[in-house]
Design goal:
2 domains; alpha+beta; seven-stranded mixed sheet; 25% strand; ph1033 like fold; 10 helices; single chain
Length: 301
C-alpha cells in the first residue's frame, strides 16, 4: 500500500506552489501519495495561514532546476490527483488544529509521513478536496428534484424531457446539434463519438428564465466530456478574436496554474470554437450567451 506524506511549502519565502514538482531534503518513496499544504506568513500579524493545495502522486525524481530550492537534495515529479478550484484556507476549518500542525509539519520545505495522531488529516483533506465534486453532484440532484416539486402541472413525459435537458440529453441535445449545423461532433475538437459528447448549457440550467431557454440550441454546445466538465464549472470559456466566427479558449484564473497539466491531455489555449456552421437564426443569442459565460469565467471568485 502506498505511503501517504504531507509536504509543506512556504509561500511567503518561495512563492506560489506550482503543482508540478516538490523539492525537499526528505526522501519520499516513488508511488507515495503527497498532500501539499502551503503556508503564507503575514509579517505584520506574525501569523501563518495554511492552505491545502491538493493531492498528488510521486511519479519520479527529476533534476532540480529551480533556483528557489538549490539547497534541496530531492526533486520529485508530481502527478495531480485532485484539487479544489482554489486552495482551501485550513485555518477556517474547525477540525484543523493549526498549532499541532505547525509543531509537527512546518519545518522548512519538509515532507513527513502522516502517521499516528495526524492520520485524521487524511480524511479531512480528502473531504475538502472532494467538496467540489459533491457540490456539483448535489446541484444536479437539486435541479432534478425541483422539476418534480415545482412543475406539478407538467405531464410525466414533459418532466422526463426537462430532466433529459438538464443532463444535456434529449430535446436539448437535438436542438443544440441542429443549431450547430446538424453535425454531431465536439464543437472544439471535432470528435464524432456520440458517447463521449455532452450537450452543455451555456447559461446554467437553473438560471434559465424559461423552459424554452433550457431547451434552446442557442444556449448549448456539444463538447467532449472533459471540456464539458471544465466549461460547466466556468473553468474555461471562449473569447472573441479578430475573426468573427472564431473564438479562442481561455482559462479561468482559478485554473490557469494547471494549464501545463491540462496540456498533457490536449487542452490548451490554442484550441478554438468555430462558429462557422452555426445557423444564422441561432448565432446572435449564442454569441450573447458565450459572452456572459466568459465574463463569469474571468471574473468569478
Amino acid at each position: 500500500m502506498a505511503e501517504i506524506f504531507l509536504g509543506y511549502h512556504k509561500t511567503h519565502e518561495n512563492g506560489g506552489f506550482k503543482g508540478e514538482k516538490f523539492f525537499t531534503n526528505t526522501k519520499i518513496p516513488i508511488g507515495s501519495t503527497l498532500f501539499v499544504v502551503s503556508g503564507n506568513k503575514v509579517k505584520s500579524a506574525d501569523k501563518i495561514t495554511y492552505y491545502l493545495e491538493g493531492k498528488y502522486k510521486i511519479v519520479s525524481t527529476g533534476e532540480n532546476t529551480d533556483d528557489r530550492f538549490k539547497n534541496k537534495k530531492n526533486s520529485y515529479n508530481l502527478k495531480h490527483l485532485i484539487s479544489t478550484k482554489t486552495a482551501v484556507n485550513l485555518n477556517n476549518e474547525k477540525n484543523f488544529d493549526s498549532e499541532t500542525f505547525h509543531n509537527y509539519f512546518t519545518s522548512n520545505q519538509s515532507a513527513k509521513k502522516i502517521t499516528g495522531n495526524q492520520t485524521y488529516l487524511i480524511k479531512l483533506f480528502d473531504d475538502l478536496l472532494n467538496a467540489d465534486e459533491k457540490s456539483y453532484d448535489l446541484d444536479l440532484i437539486d435541479d432534478l428534484s425541483s422539476i418534480d416539486s415545482n412543475e406539478a402541472d407538467l405531464s410525466e413525459t414533459e418532466k422526463l424531457a426537462m430532466k433529459l435537458a438538464r443532463i444535456g440529453q434529449g430535446e436539448f441535445r437535438k436542438n443544440t446539434i441542429e443549431a450547430w449545423g446538424g453535425d454531431e461532433k465536439c464543437a472544439v475538437t471535432g470528435l464524432r463519438i456520440p458517447a463521449l459528447l455532452n450537450a452543455s448549457h451555456i447559461i446554467p440550467w437553473r438560471e434559465c428564465r424559461s423552459v424554452e431557454e433550457r431547451k434552446s440550441g442557442s444556449n448549448g454546445l456539444l463538447l467532449c466530456v472533459h471540456l464539458d466538465r471544465l466549461f460547466d464549472r466556468f473553468l474555461i470559456g471562449f473569447q472573441r478574436t479578430c475573426k468573427p466566427d472564431v473564438r479562442a479558449l481561455v482559462f479561468s484564473p482559478k485554473i490557469k496554474e494547471k494549464s501545463l497539466l491540462l496540456n498533457e491531455i490536449g487542452i490548451n489555449n490554442l484550441m478554438i470554437l468555430d462558429l462557422t456552421m452555426v445557423k444564422f437564426s441561432a448565432k446572435p443569442q449564442l454569441e450573447r450567451n458565450l459572452d456572459k459565460h466568459l465574463d463569469r469565467v474571468l471574473n468569478e471568485e
